[in-house]
Design a protein that fits this description.
about 240 residues; mainly alpha; Four Helix Bundle (Hemerythrin (Met), subunit A); two-stranded antiparallel sheet; 9 helices
């Protein structure tokens, strides 16, 4: 019985690790170590992805785990990227910088609350609104790019990008979740080739690669909505 009970701790350890890494990211950002702080948010994403998968693999899912995971998300993917953004450039724009960071956290919390109460009612293959981990990695990777290419003179663009992804989190745009993707045998080979190419890109150009991949996913929701609207207009004309 003791061994069985210990298994329930395992997924929660990954969740706790995500919180710990998120806090370290905030501390490093406050010291001006923006590169390390950005990569730590990506590491928090890895821990966040592992906790749910480990829980399902070991059959140790619980309501406590669900609530703990949501609290971890608001720290690692809400507060951490918001503070990273503020320390990197937001403080130079006074109240506007504070407002963007605050709205990012508030909208992130709303996104998580809405997700928790609608999980049982929505399609498991679809997210309504941009997931907060995606928004966090979006902000951190673009901060990496601006820091790498010394684009601080244009950093106000980052504030508007962060505000944009904050709004996308509370939008009704649909995003694929990839939780229950089933591939036919021919598609498995093609998918493997795509993943190898993406991994190669990330190896050669880590920050640029992650930024492009996350940007593509972020734009998927609005572009899908525009395509749906255009198809409806075509049907109406016919």
């Amino acid at each position: 019985m003791k061994r069985a009970n210990l298994i329930y701790i395992l997924p929660n350890l990954f969740t706790a690790s995500s919180i710990f890494v998120g806090v370290i990211s905030i501390v490093e950002a406050s010291k001006g170590n923006f590169v390390l702080a950005s990569w730590l948010i990506l590491l928090a994403l890895i821990f966040d992805g592992l906790d749910g998968r480990v829980a399902r693999m070991t059959n140790t899912t619980s309501q406590f785990g669900v609530e703990f995971d949501s609290l971890a998300d608001i720290i690692s993917f809400g507060i951490a990227p918001a503070m990273l953004l503020y320390f990197f450039i937001g403080h130079e724009f006074g109240r506007f910088g504070i407002l963007v960071s605050a709205l990012y956290v508030i909208f992130g919390a709303i996104r998580l609350a809405r997700f928790n109460i609608s999980t049982a009612k929505t399609d498991p293959n679809v997210f309504i609104g941009l997931p907060i981990p995606t928004a966090a990695v979006f902000v951190s990777m673009w901060i990496l790019l601006f820091h790498k290419y010394t684009l601080e003179n244009y950093s106000i663009i980052l504030l508007f990008l962060a505000l944009g992804v904050a709004i996308l989190m509370v939008s009704n745009f649909r995003y694929p979740s990839f939780k229950k993707v089933q591939l036919d045998k021919p598609m498995v080979f093609k998918t493997m080739i795509v993943f190898v190419l993406i991994a190669s890109l990330l190896y050669l150009y880590s920050a640029e690669g992650f930024a492009i991949v996350i940007l593509a996913y972020t734009l998927y929701g609005p572009l899908r909505a525009l395509r749906t609207i255009n198809l409806r207009k075509i049907k109406i004309k016919r």
